[in-house]
Design a protein that fits this description.
Pfam families: NBCH_WD40 (PF20426). It is a single chain. By secondary structure, the protein is mainly beta. It has 2 domains: 1-156, 7 Propeller (Methylamine Dehydrogenase, Chain H), CATH 2.130.10; 160-306, Methylamine Dehydrogenase, Chain H (7 Propeller), CATH 2.130.10. It has strands at residues 2-4, 10-18, 24-29, 34-48, 55-63, 69-71, 78-84, 89-94, 98-103, 109-114, 123-126, 131-136, 141-146, 151-156, 161-166, 172-177, 182-186, 192-196, 203-208, 214-218, 222-226, 248-252, 264-269, 275-281, 289-295, 300-302. Strands 1, 2, 3, 4, 5 and 6 form a 6-stranded antiparallel beta sheet that branches. A hairpin with a 5-residue loop joins β9 (98-103) and β10. It is globular and about 45 Å long. Residues 1-8, 231-262, 269-274, 282-287 and 298-306 have low confidence and may be disordered.
Length: 306
């Protein structure tokens, strides 16, 4: 992905993050800087959506021509970002092993955290309660900090993590990776609260629903839906269409060409939780992207229109 500034300077983007309300975009670059952009929502003419009987209003998102902040403080490529309007903060992680804090509104430097082993940061998440978790592939460790930079806890991940997400309530960390398990940890101590064993396949993408259910995409192209039966892990009732005895459902996208069943790159959930959108890459051609829509109520795949 590339971003052109107003002055036609080509910038190679290494990571991007958006605020929950979609109003701010933060991009990390290979030149070690973080740029913060304002995003405008512009109503576009109504457009008919495929397979929908009625026309739906569509809104386009326009990014400002120039960033309103260019943040510095790293010595290597930006690998992860978090930006929050509510907390007025921009967090950036880098291959140099540091996590740098800036204020969102003023762009003012606050502090830096360094990974205890000095290794490159792979992922970071932050909750609205002011808890921050750093993860590094090099030592497979999770580190929990307060927003003031105080170290709270450390835990081993026991395997490479491909996905690190927060629950909707912000009180739990949801991790998944090469071991094929989904592990739920407390954001107060990093202690394991619940473990889902999955189907023995590496999990490559993960989405957490507002009802605290998990959609996991696997390396072999399967979509897993986990329903949470433990009331400790969910704040609201679980939709009936996602309940199951074993707590997991498996959906497989059977395509005309077998070689297109490949690992999931991303998984998104529609607002009312009736369908999930996923994408995967082709085995023979990584540039060939397959997109599938899963109907969670009918437990199948919505046919595509070519």
């Amino acid at each position: 992905m590339e971003v052109f500034s107003k002055f036609d300077i080509l910038i190679e983007v290494s990571y991007a993050a958006v605020t929950l309300d979609g109003s701010i975009l933060a991009t990390g670059s290979c030149d070690t800087t973080v740029m913060v952009w304002e995003v405008f929502r512009v109503k576009a003419p109504d457009k008919r959506v495929r397979n929908m009987p009625t026309e739906m209003p569509r809104k386009d998102y326009v990014i400002s021509e120039t960033p309103f902040h260019i943040l510095c403080g790293h010595d290597d490529i930006i690998t992860c970002l978090y930006v929050s309007v509510e907390l007025n903060i921009v967090l950036s992680g880098s291959k140099d092993g540091t996590c740098v804090f800036h204020t969102l509104r003023e762009g003012r430097y606050l502090r830096s955290l360094r990974h205890p082993a000095g290794v490159a940061l792979s992922k970071l998440v932050a909750s609205r309660h002011g808890r921050i978790v750093l993860y590094a592939d090099d030592d497979l460790s999770l580190h929990l900090y307060s927003i003031n930079g105080k170290h709270i806890a450390t835990s081993e991940s026991n395997g490479r993590l491909n996905c690190v997400e927060l629950s909707s309530c912000g009180e739990f960390l949801v991790c998944a990776g090469d071991q094929g398990q989904i592990v739920v940890r407390s954001m107060n101590s990093l202690e394991t609260v619940r473990r889902y064993n999955g189907v023995g396949k590496s999990i490559t993408s993960l989405a957490v629903t507002p009802e605290e259910c998990f959609l996991a995409g696997t390396k072999d192209g399967s979509l897993l839906v986990y329903s949470i039966e433990n009331p400790q892990l969910r704040k609201t009732s679980l939709p009936r269409n996602l309940k199951s005895k074993d707590g997991v459902r498996r959906f497989e996208r059977q395509l005309e060409q077998k070689e297109h069943i490949r690992k999931f790159m991303c998984t998104l959930l529609q607002v009312d939780e009736s369908w999930a959108l996923s994408s995967s890459s082709s085995i023979q051609n990584k540039k060939n992207i397959t997109v599938a829509v899963f109907d969670l109520e009918k437990h199948g795949v919505i046919p595509r229109e070519d």
